Amino acid sequence: MAAVYSGISFKLKSKTTSWEDKLKLAHFAWISHQCVLPNKEQVLLDWARQSLIAFYKKKLELKEDIVERLWIYIDNILHSKKLQDLLKNGKTINLQISLVKIINERIAEFSLLESQRSMCAVLSCCQGILSTPALAVIYTARQELIVVLLSQLCWLACRQPERAMVAQLFEVIHLALGHYLSIQQQQVNPRRAFGEMTGHLLQPCLVLRHLLSGGMWTQAGQGQLRQGLSREIRSQIEALLQGGAFQPELLSSYKEELLDQQQGDTKIGTMKNLLAPMDTLIARLLDVGYCEPSLRSAVIANSVALLYKLFLDSYFKEGNQLLCFRVLSRLFGCLRISHLQEEQIKALATSDWTTELLVVEQLLNSVASNNIYNIAADRIRHEEAQFHFYRRLAELLINHSQASVPAWFRCLKALMSLNHLILEPDLDDLLASAWIDAEVTDFRTKKAQEALLHTLFQTYVKLRQVPRLFEEILGVICRPAAEELRQPVLASGPSRVLCECLLELPPGQILDTWSLLLEKFQSLVLPYLQGDVDMALKSLSLSSLLHCIMFNMRSLDSSTPLPIIRRMQCTMERMLRELVRPLLDLLLDLQVPELELWLQKVSDSALLLSYTWAQVDAMLSINCSQYHSLSVALTDVATEISNLPLLLPGVETHQWKKIEKFTAQFDSLGRYCLEQLYLQKMKRTLMQTNFQSEEALRTLRCDAAYILDSGRESLNQRTRASWDAQVGTVSALTYPVAHWHLIVSNLTILISYLCPDDVRSLASVLLRTLPMSKAQEVSADEEPSITLEKISNSILHSPLFPEMQSLHSAFLMCLTEGCTSILCSGAQCDPSLLNQQLPWLFEKDHMMVALWENRFAKVGPEGVEPKGEIAQNLLSLVKSDFPIQLEGEQLESILGLLEVISTLQLDSLLTPYHVHYFLLLLSMAMIKLGSSCSSSLTLKFLMTCYRLLGYLQRGKSARSVLKIMYVSDIFEIILTSLFKASSRLPVNMDDPSWLEFLQVIGAFLEQLMQMLIQMKLSLVLNFGKISRFLHKLYTEAIAGKQVENQNCRGQQLILVSLTKLCQVLGPFVKERKQHHEAPEALCELLQKAVLHTGAVLQLCWAQGAQDHHLPSIFISSASTLLEADVGQHPRHRTETSQMTDEMTCSHTTFYQSVYSQLLSELPAFAEDSQCFQAAMRFLTLFFLTPELHPKKDSVFTSMFHSMRKVLADPTIPVQVIEDIEPHLGALFTQMLEVGTTEDFRMVMQCILQGLDVSNMWKADLQAVLSAVTLTKVLLSSPLSGEKARLFWSACPQIVTALTLQNREACQEQPVLLAVVGPILDLLAALLRQGEETISNPHHVSLAFSILLTVPLDHLKPPEYGRIFLRVHNVLFSILQCHPKVMLKAIPSFLNCFNRLLFSVMHEGRQKDKGGTDDLSVVLECARLVQRMYSHIAARAEEFTVFSPFMVAHYVTEVQKVTLYPTVKGLLQEGIYLILDLCIEPDVQFLRVSLQPGVRDIFKELYNDYVKYHKAKHEGEKRYTA
User: Fold this and answer.
1) Cα(155)–Cα(163) distance, integer angstroms
2) Does residue 1310 have a cis bond before it (omega within 30 degrees)?
3) 3-class SS of residue 723
4) Is pLDDT above 80 for 591?
5) Which of 200, 234, 614, 1088 has the most beta carbons within 10 angstroms of its beta carbon?
6) What does the pLDDT average to over 569-591?
């Protein structure tokens, strides 16, 4: 047979054989073992290669389909397992260079987009060659081939091929780059490497890196390229560029080119011909045509930043600063903005500015971070070369202002940080373009502007030249400009910066600046104000600046030098005399018929300065006893007879009235400042001794009324404007917000002097401006601001709100009126009749409702009890037809008000409010709901009402409700209303919202009955009425004639009510029986309740509850019934009635049915926590009642296997298993207490079977997890005697099994964290509880091998935090509970601990991209490391020898990363404790043995240790006994 196929090679070469047959034969020959050819693999590969060569050299004509199939044939050979096996066995397969050249030529064609045919097959062939080392030799042996391939692959990727090919293409690029880098590292000829890189690879690699950095193939929605692969390729490109362009051997060439140095070293003779490497790089970078024009500028810009970074990484060291600067200046010349001054190109678009300014920012940051610019060295040695360059750059930036680009501000900030003299010649233009005249609206741009101004002000604070800076600022403000186009000078950002600066200034500089501002105002603005809008606007800007200076300077006190105080006194007098009064006189003297803009702005300026002056004057007079207030000094001069303070010294009341009349015409800053003046006046009045006199009180009330009335109309506008809380930005738009902020901020002062009408007005505004929907979170890219809603929300949640009783009361009344108006809009009867039926809806005063207590608390004539009047009235309304019906929109409106009510502290209401709100909420819960109300909305409304009623009745005034109504009456009203509503409610019985509603109702009914017991309010009477009412409902529910019309939801309501009755009455009766105090009537009531509950439960069961999942309400009721039943019928009883025996018998069958169904459905309950908890409670009670156990099966075994089934269910998530673990533990504890030793043996056998490593090999993870969880549950149960001995004797076997399981789980990809986490938890628990019982040290040592296997890298932050905590817990358990083992295995312990330490350093490093959202996880881990350091330091004797090595490990690792300061601080606090253990020889040893870079880190660490930690420690020792 072999001979038959030996001629196949002749047929393949034959011209008569068709190509279809040739391909079939070739394929058969490759896969068949019967085809015997000498060197068959090489022959077949050569045939396919020669066929393709002949085709591409035009020597052979083939169809495109045949050509593609030939490529696929070669690809199949290259990827076949057969070929791989041959190569592994040492057989040589020669690919021939011709095949590789054809592949390179095809990829070149593809990159030119000439043809895409066979592209996938060719790329796959290339991948097959490169991924097989034995075949890749053909590329690595001929370096030019890999260079051409890599170049063409990069160009192909840059042409953005079809989506389907992207992933494959980049895999090939990744392989090619890897091979080229390995060749490059072995390259001994730097000239050749540089030539290859610049000649062939520089341009395509730069373009490709730019596209990858922009997320071209990795953006959301595309997903053709993995993020990880994209990052790796970018890193490979950077390594390629660095290895080619910036080799150590080329440093001399760069120096020769850029510094004009003559090289005398003969060793570099071979480099003589490689001249001007920087010129070569720049020329290739600036070539025209290698990429699309739209990309070219962006590619060049990004490449400039990259090349400079790589240059610094390669060559920067001390002494090379000038060289690095020369490279910077040359690369900067590649940017288009560098030619703007020469007017070689037109102005750039904003997007181009953004791109290039980002690059400039990176360049300047590199200069700063590497200390390339040394001011003194530049001036002395290099004739200020760098300074002049930065000056030109500063001029360029300032002359071409780009205030809409954040990077523009950051570049200026970087220049200011380098040397303030760079920007000082253009300081005025800088201030104008970056602040005064800048139009900045975007939040990110505002933050960049704020950072620049912060650097600017801080620089001049350090130079003590702030007055000079302000002189420039004032010059810019006062220069001619279109003031209307300017934004407010002191918005929130600049204001913050200025405030921070002013706090650091000494008083002398503050006063210099203040005086300068007064001079400029007086000389340049004040004389020209009249009729000039621009000047009026300038005056407002200067006033804002003066206000900021005066408000934020450091206050004087009695310790301030007297000359400073006198100077301050003079400046205050001068300001009042020469500025404030002239401005006010200008307002008072002018008779302008029409309101003009300039006059409005002058009034704003005058009143702002008046308010500022008054506030500062008051502050100085309080804080500094040597300062004499002008307000006091000028009181005698005033024409006022009263001793009460004026708004401002020297300005009479009638003049203020004229100003008030003027400012009332518009909402503006002036009106706001006038309110502030009145508020300041109130504060000064309150500080006087006669503030309680009639005159003072009258004045205070008038001032408070004015403040409130001033903005009353503006608050009715319901503006949505936001305000940044800066006085200078108050305008007509933001005035309502500023006014409301002023009132709310000073409510504690104002509220006592407002009349009742004003208080009600305040309350209505508060209610109207509250947000009725969930507030949206402020984005990180949005500036925090103040709105009406935020202000109102803050007062509502303030702890002071309930303390302001008048406002709180008025607000409660407003809420009541709001609810009443909605309820009345749905009234279906005459309002007068509704007033008779529900009078509390129409009461305007809560106190009127409280008067009912006295009337209803008395017994009327002829035995009639008025206490039941309200209840009977409500009950008759519910039974007949409630007179109010609401539709969907009305219900949503009232729900919004209920949400507001829910935020109030209802449990602390006074009695009148409590009663009123109880009746209001009870009335709302009984209303009829129209057809437009959905079932979900209805249930939400009812749940809200009953939750609020429950919250109310938990309060201190709960008893007051029971003075006007009996609990039994409330119970009957609620259930009657609900029973009626449930019949109309279109909702399924197993709907989650309905079940939640039942829980809310049950909780409230239980609360009512608990109140009866706690307050001992006629227990037999109330419980008797409740029981009779429930008996009536129960009778109706099980009546045969109503079977066809049964209300199933009503039955559930009855079941809940009966259950709660049993739940409350059962324990109470049981407790009284123990003291022989239980009334016989209550025992009978409980017995009836048990019988009725059992009947209703069995009715629900008969109606089909057994056919589907049991709801939690059913299981809870069954548990309560069982508990009450057991309490009613103890095991040793002597006398029971026939009826009770029969019922108990039927209950027994019922309990067994529920037990069986629960066991079968237990896995389905796992994800419903309430259902599962209820099931566990029932099973526990059932297990503890042996009389109920079935005769056939063991209840212990059945329950245990059911628990195993839950834990082994693959559909139940791991998190759910962790949540239900405590509930399982409670049941398991009871089972183990009662179970026999044989039962325990069976449990241990199942656990050990589950922990067998074969389960992991079979991928039966659930069996493993089940066994681990059961072991944890077992450990949480108290074990004693034989059971404890059995468990701890099996402990070594468990630890060994855990070690094997963990090893297998960690070898899987990805790591099975769902298994590793529970294993670590169990291991920690075993080590803690086995402190005295685990005797073999080997089994403790196994824990180290487990910890060393657990991965701590490549985890998501939440996963990392969980695994880290568990590893730490195991390590801590060994340290605390097994010190002897730890002492013998300290190296293993430290290895495990160092893994934790290094992982925290890795996760806590500062990353190039991404925010700090996950930093909290790392911080928590760092705290654990610090705590572990403290525990290690506490065991000084054991660890002293190892302390220097721990420090060495720390500094070696910390040198590799830049940590976040918070993480670094925590780790340093820990390592300081280890340094405490180091003696002086240890420190000397570290200084000598550490590597140079690490040594510097240690030196810095040790200096900080001595300065901060050791000094503090020694200081504490001095005071220690």
Assistant:
1) 16
2) yes
3) strand
4) no
5) 614
6) 88
Enter the tokens of residue 1321.
């938890």
Q: CA–CA separation, 703 vs 678, rounded Å?
A: 6
| Contact partners, residue 1249, CB within 8 Å, separation at least 6 | 1263, 1267
User: Which phi and psi (to 5°) does residue 930 adopt?
Assistant: -75, 175
Distance of CA 301 to the CA centre of its chain: 34
* Residue appearing with tokens 């052979």: 60
Per-residue pLDDT of 708-732, as tens digits, reads 998 888 888 778 888 888 888 888 8
Q: For residue 886, give the H/E element and its range.
A: strand 885-886
Q: 723 — phi, psi (to 5°)? A: -125, 140
Q: From CA 1283, how far away is CA 1241, in angstroms rounded?
A: 8
Burial class (CB in 10 A: 0-12, 13-18, 19+), 1202: middle
The one-letter code for the residue type at 275 is L
List of residues 6+ apart from 121 with CB closer than 8 A: 68, 71, 72, 75
- C-alpha–C-alpha distance, residues 676 and 683, integer Å: 10
Looking only at Cα atoms, what is the longest distance across the chain? Answer: 135
User: What pLDDT score was predicted for residue 574?
Assistant: 93
**Contact (Cβ atoms closer than 8 angstroms) between residue 1320 and residue 1292:** no
Q: How many CA atoms lie within 13 A of 1382 on its CB side?
A: 22
- As given in the structure block, the two tokens for residue 392 are 């030109």
CB atoms within 10 A of CB 1406: 13
Query: What residues contact residue 951 under an 8 Å CB cut-off, 6+ apart?
Result: 902, 906, 907
pLDDT of residue 1321: 92
What residue type is 711 in one-letter code?
A: G
* Cα–Cα distance, 546 to 612 (Å, whole number): 9
CB–CB of 323/315 below 8 Å?
yes
What pLDDT, on the 0 to 100 scale, is given for residue 265? 45
What are the tens digits of pLDDT across the range 1018-1073?
Answer: 888 888 898 898 888 878 766 643 444 457 788 888 889 999 999 888 888 888 77
- How many whole angstroms from its chain centre is CA 973? 47
pLDDT at 448: 93
Closest CA to 1326 of 1291, 1362, 1281, 1282: 1291
pLDDT at position 307 is 94
**Contact assessment for residue 436 and residue 475, using Cβ atoms and an 8 Å cutoff:** no
Position of tokens 């009345």? 824
- Report DSSP state, residue 522: I
Displacement of CA 968 from its chain's centroid (Å): 49
Residues 8 and 24: beta-carbon distance below 8 Å: no
Dihedral angle sign, alpha carbons of residues 1316, 1318, 1324, 1327: negative
Whole-angstrom distance between the N-terminal and C-terminal Cα of the chain? 102
- 423 Cβ partners below 8 Å, 6+ apart? 394, 398, 412, 415, 416, 430
C-alpha distances (whole Å) from 1373 to each of 52, 1361, 1378, 1438 are 69, 18, 7, 17
Residue 1408: band (very low, low, confident or very high) from pLDDT cuts 50, 70, 90:
low
Q: What is the pLDDT of residues 137-185, one digit of tens each?
A: 888 888 889 999 999 999 888 876 666 678 888 899 999 999 999 998 8
Residue 861 is predicted with a pLDDT of 38
Backbone angles phi, psi at 786, to 5 degrees: -110, 135
Q: How far is residue 1172's CA from residue 1212's CA, in Å, rounded to a whole number?
A: 13
Handedness of CA 153, 158, 160, 164 (dihedral sign): positive
> pLDDT grade, residue 1161 (50/70/90)?
confident
Q: What is the average per-residue pLDDT within 1086-1090? A: 86
Q: Rounded CA gap, 1356 and 733, in Å?
A: 47
Q: Which residues of 554-592 are buried (b: 16+ CB within 10 A; e: fewer)?
A: eebeeebeeebbebbbebbeebbeebbbebbebbbeeee
Tokens of 23: 């391909």
Q: Summarize pLDDT for 1162-1200 with one digit per residue, the tens.
A: 888 887 788 888 888 888 888 888 888 887 778 888 888
> Per-residue confidence at 759, pLDDT binned at 50, 70, 90?
very high
